[in-house]
Every structure is written in C-alpha cells, then in structure tokens.
Design brief:
This is Large ribosomal subunit protein bL17. Pfam families: Ribosomal_L17. Belongs to the bacterial ribosomal protein bL17 family. The chain is an alpha+beta fold. The chain has one domain: Ribosomal protein L17 (50s Ribosomal Protein L17, Chain: A, Alpha-Beta Complex). Helix content is 51%, strand content 17%. It has 4 helices and 3 strands. The chain has a 3-stranded antiparallel sheet, covered by helices on one side. β2 and β3 form a beta hairpin. The termini are far apart. The relative contact order is 0.19. The model has no long low-confidence stretch (mean pLDDT 93).
C-alpha cells in the first residue's frame, strides 16, 4: 500500500534530487520553457510554484530564502524583478506542464514545462 507519498524520488539520492530541482528551476526561469521528462516536470512544478509565490514579495527574507533554495544569483534577480511582479495578481498556477510524446531512445514520456505569464 502506497499511502501518503509526498514526492517522487526519481531514483536519485536526496542531494542529487535537490541539485536536479535547482538546475531545472534555474533553466526554467532563464528560458521560461524547457523540455524534460514528465515525472521531473510534475515534481518540479510544486518546487517552482513555491519559489514564485515567495518572489512576489521583494523583501530581505524572500531574497535570503530564494538564494538558499537556488544558489544562483542571476535566477534570484530575475525571479524578484521580472517573474514575481508579473504574477502579482495571480493566486497560483504559475507553471504549465504540457505532454510532448515519448523520447526516441528509451521511450520515456517527455513534457514541456513553461511559465504561464511569459514575457514577450
């Protein structure tokens, strides 16, 4: 019985999973759309949405929280100056996951993950 499983382990250690989420998040904030496997995209969605919610308020505590969570100064700047204010009025649902078929090599399900309010 698999009750109350909080998150996907993605067949990685906890430190590797944390690094993976950081790297995918930095890529998503930089490019605003990335292609990855479907389980990674679904797991990343909750991680990114918490960070975007935190970035809507640009204060000292938010900056410290984001720097600790991401460890990437450029991404933190873009979150606080661009992505956070862009989603100020949105109550949630900042990220969209779109299925994109299967990968040719191993038939893994692929997906696009993108920010809903994309800059033009």
């Amino acid at each position: 019985m698999s009750n109350k499983i909080k998150f996907r382990k993605l067949n990685r250690t906890s430190s590797h999973r944390k690094a993976l989420m950081r790297n995918l998040t930095c890529s998503l904030v930089e490019h605003e759309t990335i292609k990855t496997t479907l389980p990674k995209a679904k797991e990343m969605r909750s991680f990114v949405e918490k960070l975007i919610t935190k970035s809507k308020v640009n204060d000292f505590n938010s900056v410290r929280y984001l720097k600790a969570a991401l460890n990437c100064k450029e991404t933190v700047k873009k979150l606080l100056n661009v992505v956070g204010p862009r989603n100020k009025d949105r109550p949630g649902g900042y990220v969209r996951v779109l299925k994109a078929g299967h990968r040719a090599g191993d038939n893994a399900p692929m997906a696009y993950i993108q920010l809903v309010e994309q800059g033009e």
